[in-house]
C-alpha cells in the first residue's frame, strides 16, 4: 500500500476517534462532568471580637540610670550583670575612708566649738549677776554676750558640716531605687569615678511593663468611645510564639497626634510576671474594642478574589457549587466574618477551588466538623502538601 494512502487512513482514524470521544454518549463527557473532590466547612454563627491589629514596642515601666553623687574609687560591686534586684539592695560602694575621716574631723570641730560655747554661756550668766551688782561695766558684759553668740553660730555651722559629711559618707553606698533588672556594668570595680554624671549601670523595671503602639488618627474617636465604656483588652504576641499571647489593658492615649505620620501613641500595661515581654522588643498587638454577637464566620481560606470582588464557592443540596459574591467583615485567627452573602449552616469550599467553576459537581472528601477544627485541619493539610 502506498505511503500516501497509509497517512490518509491514519488521519481519518484519528478524526473518527476524536469525534466519538466528544459525542453526547461518549466516555469523554464523563471525564468532563466528573465530580471534583473538595474540602468544605460549615458557616457558623457566633460572637466574634472587633479588633485592631498593629505592631508595638515594649517599654520598661521605669528606667533608672544609676550614678554616683560623690567622687572616689569604686571599691565594690555587689551584683552580677542581668540580675534582678529589689528596691534598697546595695549595688556599689565608693571607698568610704576619706569621707569617714572628714566626718571625724567635723565631729571634732563640733565638740570643740560646743565646749567653747558652753563656757561662753556660763560667762554670760555670771556677768549678768555681776552687772546687776555694779561690779562690771555693761561694755564688758556685752563683750561676753557677743562671744557666746559667735560660738553658738559656729556650733550650728559645725552641726551642718557634720550632717553633710554623714550624707557624703552615706552616698558611698549606692542602692537600687526601684525593683528591676540590672543591665550592663558600665564602670568596673577599681576605677576612679571623678565625674558624678558618669552612668554606672541602668536598671529597667519589667514588672509591670508597657507596650506602646501607634494607630491612625482616624480611629482615635472610636477607641476613646469604647475606652470610656470599659477597660479595653490588649494582647501582645511575641514573634514565633503566637499560641501564647500576653494580655494587658489599654492605659494611655497621648494628648496629641503626630503631624508627620498622622498617628497617635497608645500604651498598654502588662503585669509581665513571667517576663515574657522584654524592653525594646517588637511584638504584634491586638486591641479588642468590642464583641460582635451572632456574626456569620467562615475560614479565610474559602474566600476567593475575582474581577468583580470577593466570592465563595457554596455547595448546594445537589452537590453542585454556586459562585457567590460576599461582603467581608473583620478577620481573626484565620477566620473571616461575612457581613453579607452567606447564611449560617451553608457549606463553603475551603480546598480545591482552583478546579471549580459555577455549577461544577463536587464530592466532599472530609467529615463536617466544627469550623475551628476544619480550619486547622485545612492548614495542616496545606502544610503537608507544601512539604
UniProtKB/TrEMBL annotation:
Chain segments annotated as coiled-coil in the UniProt record: 103-130
Highest taxon listed in the record's lineage: Bacteria
Domain Multidrug resistance protein MdtA-like beta-barrel: start-end pairs: 208-289
Multidrug resistance protein MdtA-like barrel-sandwich hybrid domain span: 63-196
SUPFAM superfamilies, per the entry: HlyD-like secretion proteins
GO CC aspect terms: cell envelope; efflux pump complex
Protein family membership: Belongs to the membrane fusion protein (MFP) (TC 8.A.1) family.
Protein name: Efflux transporter periplasmic adaptor subunit
Organism of origin: Candidatus Brocadia carolinensis
Amino acid at each position: 500500500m502506498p505511503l500516501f494512502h497509509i497517512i490518509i487512513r491514519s488521519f481519518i482514524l484519528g478524526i473518527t476517534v476524536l469525534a466519538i470521544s466528544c459525542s453526547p454518549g461518549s466516555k469523554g463527557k464523563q471525564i468532563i462532568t466528573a465530580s471534583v473532590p473538595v474540602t468544605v466547612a460549615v458557616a457558623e454563627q457566633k460572637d466574634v471580637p472587633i479588633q485592631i491589629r498593629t505592631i508595638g514596642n515594649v517599654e520598661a515601666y521605669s528606667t533608672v540610670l544609676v550614678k554616683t553623687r560623690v567622687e572616689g574609687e569604686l571599691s565594690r560591686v555587689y551584683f552580677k550583670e542581668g540580675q534582678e534586684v529589689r528596691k534598697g539592695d546595695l549595688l556599689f560602694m565608693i571607698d568610704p575612708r576619706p569621707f569617714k575621716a572628714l566626718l571625724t574631723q567635723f565631729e571634732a570641730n563640733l565638740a570643740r566649738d560646743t565646749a567653747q560655747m558652753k563656757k561662753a554661756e556660763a560667762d554670760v550668766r555670771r556677768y549678768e549677776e555681776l552687772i546687776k551688782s555694779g561690779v562690771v561695766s555693761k561694755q564688758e558684759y556685752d563683750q561676753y554676750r557677743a562671744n557666746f553668740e559667735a560660738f553658738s553660730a559656729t556650733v550650728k555651722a559645725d552641726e551642718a558640716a557634720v550632717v553633710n559629711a554623714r550624707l557624703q559618707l552615706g552616698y558611698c553606698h549606692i542602692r537600687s531605687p526601684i525593683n528591676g533588672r540590672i543591665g550592663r556594668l558600665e564602670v568596673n570595680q577599681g576605677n576612679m569615678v571623678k565625674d558624678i554624671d558618669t552612668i554606672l549601670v541602668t536598671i529597667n523595671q519589667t514588672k509591670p511593663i508597657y507596650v506602646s503602639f501607634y494607630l491612625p488618627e482616624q480611629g482615635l474617636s472610636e477607641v476613646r468611645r469604647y475606652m470610656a465604656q470599659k477597660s479595653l483588652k490588649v494582647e501582645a504576641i511575641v514573634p514565633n510564639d503566637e499560641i501564647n499571647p500576653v494580655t494587658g489593658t489599654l492605659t494611655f492615649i497621648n494628648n496629641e497626634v503626630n503631624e508627620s505620620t498622622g498617628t497617635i501613641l497608645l500604651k498598654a500595661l502588662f503585669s509581665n510576671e513571667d517576663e515574657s515581654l522584654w524592653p525594646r522588643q517588637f511584638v504584634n498587638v491586638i486591641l479588642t474594642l468590642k464583641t460582635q454577637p451572632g456574626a456569620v464566620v467562615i475560614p479565610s481560606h474559602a474566600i476567593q478574589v475575582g474581577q468583580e470582588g470577593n466570592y465563595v464557592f457554596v455547595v448546594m443540596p445537589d452537590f453542585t457549587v454556586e459562585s457567590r459574591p460576599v461582603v467581608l467583615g473583620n478577620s481573626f485567627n484565620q477566620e473571616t466574618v461575612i457581613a453579607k452573602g452567606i447564611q449560617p449552616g451553608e457549606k463553603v469550599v475551603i480546598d480545591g477551588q482552583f478546579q471549580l467553576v459555577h455549577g461544577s459537581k463536587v464530592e466532599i472528601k472530609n467529615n463536617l466538623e466544627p469550623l475551628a477544627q476544619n480550619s486547622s485541619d485545612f492548614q495542616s493539610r496545606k502544610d503537608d502538601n507544601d512539604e
